[in-house]
Amino acid sequence: MSQLSSLEELGSAANVPSAQPEAPVHVQKLDKFGRAYATGKRKDAVARVWVKPGSGKIIVNDKDYTAYFARPVLQMVLRQPIVATSRDGQFDIIATVAGGGLSGQAGAVRHGISKALTYYEPGLRAVLKKGGFLTRDSRTVERKKYGKAKARRSFQFSKR
């Protein structure tokens, strides 16, 4: 960095365009089988998701997603990123999910699908980011504290 000795030099130095950092260019990330892989997380659940072109089958832990997630709300949560990007019936999705309950697992698979779709088709990133699908929901169960019945609940108080 050169030394500036007067205000005029400072003004002329400010007019020089500095090297602005470029926005990161997102490129397609595929494995040797032509699949995009991503990890999704929600609460205590972790999902490993593979996305490849296909007929629209969604397999979760070697079962059809409608059999694994019986509640329609969870099926809807799982399909949100696919519907938002209007890629219904274009990709086969295989997911393995472990930990947590069914709601957390559905959220983890949704997060994984969203990330894998951006790796397969980087142009979809703007739509998924605007919908909030790429953000990991960091809310987890608060730990239990000593001297408390639960995380925050105190034992019953009695004056005598």
TrEMBL record:
PROSITE patterns xref list: RIBOSOMAL_S9
GO term, biological process aspect, one: translation
Any one Gene Ontology molecular-function term assigned to this protein's record: structural constituent of ribosome
A single cellular component GO annotation: cytosolic small ribosomal subunit
Keyword entries, A-Z: Ribonucleoprotein, Ribosomal protein
HAMAP family, alphabetized: Ribosomal_uS9_B
Family: Belongs to the universal ribosomal protein uS9 family.
NCBIfam families: PRK00132.1 (NF001099)
The protein's name in its UniProt record: Small ribosomal subunit protein uS9
Organism: Jiella avicenniae
Gene that this sequence comes from: rpsI
